[in-house]
Amino acid sequence: MTALVGPNAILQLRAPLDARGGEALIADMLRAAGLADWPDATGMIEERVAARAHAALPDLVPDPRAVAREAGAATAHYILAHRIPARAQWLLRHLPAPMAIPLLTRAIAAHAWTFSGSGAFTISRRRPLTLEIAQNPLAGPLGCDWHVAVFETLYQSLADPRLRVTERACCAMGAEACRFEVTRPA
């Protein structure tokens, strides 16, 4: 069976690539991912296609980490606009952060299959809050900036704007799992 991820793992790369190189760079990305055209936003995509797209970034642009972060933030904004009900967002934004953070974390865990594909998502620690994706199919040669930006944008938008997400370990660099800490700097 083919593992799938949400289409935004690729779709949100388009705008930062277009800003850096227009249609020629977009065509290069499609070739690198093994695609004839961009997927539509209506269905899941094969994780290996998304993985190839993310892995190609260092060969395509001089600032691959910035591209991944822009795409990750755009993915989170898409989720906020289309996937999290307005009432849930209102509630999370009006709860104290110590209550909103666990609720948001449970929602992220419940939908982890959309961004971790065949990888195994876990909440490994509560303090500091640490999220892990073992065998992360989207772990790239430079780390997981896309995931960092998705998580950070969601936590800042819905729980506490001071929260930061930091990648502490990465599968692509030999770690057992990609490890993301969610903290609030003092």
UniProtKB/TrEMBL annotation:
The keyword Oxidoreductase applies. GO terms for molecular function: oxidoreductase activity. It is an enzyme of class 1 (oxidoreductase). Its EC number is 1.-.-.-. One of its GO terms (biological process) is bacteriochlorophyll biosynthetic process. It comes from the Bacteria. The keyword rRNA-binding does not apply. Residues 128-184 form the 4-vinyl reductase 4VR domain. InterPro entries: BchJ (IPR010249), NO_sig/Golgi_transp_ligand-bd (IPR024096), V4R (IPR004096). SMART domains: V4R. Keywords: Oxidoreductase. NCBIfam families: BchJ. This is Divinyl protochlorophyllide a 8-vinyl-reductase. It comes from Rubricella aquisinus.
